[in-house]
Amino acid sequence: MRTVSVVAQKGGTGKTTLCLAVACAAVRDGLAAVVVDLDPQATAASWGDRRDAELPVVVPAQPPRLARVLDAAAAQGVDLAVVDTAPRIEQGAIAAARAADLVLVPCRPAVYDLETVAATVDTIRAVAPDTSFLCVLNGVPPRGPRQPQARRLLADMGVPVCVASLGLRAAVDYAAAAGASAQEYEPRGKAAAEVAAVYDAARQAAGLSPGPAGDFHASGKAGLSTPRHDDRSISREGRLSTSPEGYSSTGRLPGLSATGKAELPASRRGGKSTRRKAGKSTGRPADVPARRRTRFDAGQVR
Ligand SMILES: Nc1ncnc2c1ncn2[C@@H]1O[C@H](COP(=O)(O)OP(=O)(O)O)[C@@H](O)[C@H]1O
Ligand SMILES: [Mg+2]
Q1: Total-model pTM
Q2: Cβ(42) to ligand 1 under 6 A?
């Protein structure tokens, strides 16, 4: 398992957005991904509540329990854990940086954000000197000199910057409201292609091999061909469901947040149909095909 932590001193830079985008892209890549939400505001966890699909599972956790949650995820066969953190570099961000194979630092190409990157990077270097980090420009305006200016400034600061960046896209906001990623919400959109490129760069920087759909991403067509991805998801499903110790039960990961043992929250015990009957908002991603949804039916996999 690889761990990618998303850390930034400033709020609103896109930590949660980037975290969820990377985790969802990993799922699209056919990998088992989990999001660990260390932010007391629980933005990622609330997104998970709005989400219809079971993966990536979002586990709210407190910083002192991060190591245990990650150990349990690794033991369950998770390929990628993405850790979301609160603004300000405090206990959670420090624990997340120390636990990570790669720290991503989202930054808007705006002076207030850029000014805080130095503090973020200094802290990462101090608390996790051996951990790689990468700044990801987020919310880049479609036109204008902001991106090249920001890249130059960050280069002058000696900060490594991800070759791919995320534009300022309405689809990102709509997707968040729907409990989806931009790739799911608008698979052929610009945001989807940008997320795929950022995911690919982050995956490589974290030392994570491509998933079963990896060649799909490598072809540069990620997010553009749902049917092919869906075929790969089915083969992934077969592998997962036959592994005795692996990520075979969607009920196991939610239990991580409480005890590290397999205990499905009552709200999920009846599977999707029960959740819908209970009036739970699903916010179903627009392009998640039915075959992919059914593999997360708790009744089938437990
Ligand atoms: N690339 C983007 N395009 C459009 N809106 C974005 C983008 N990135 C983030 N946002 C929006 O900006 C707000 C703050 O983002 P968020 O990820 O919650 O930041 P953080 O977790 O760092 O506080 C959210 O409303 C989010 O939807
Ligand atoms: Mg956040």
Answers
A1: 0.78
A2: no
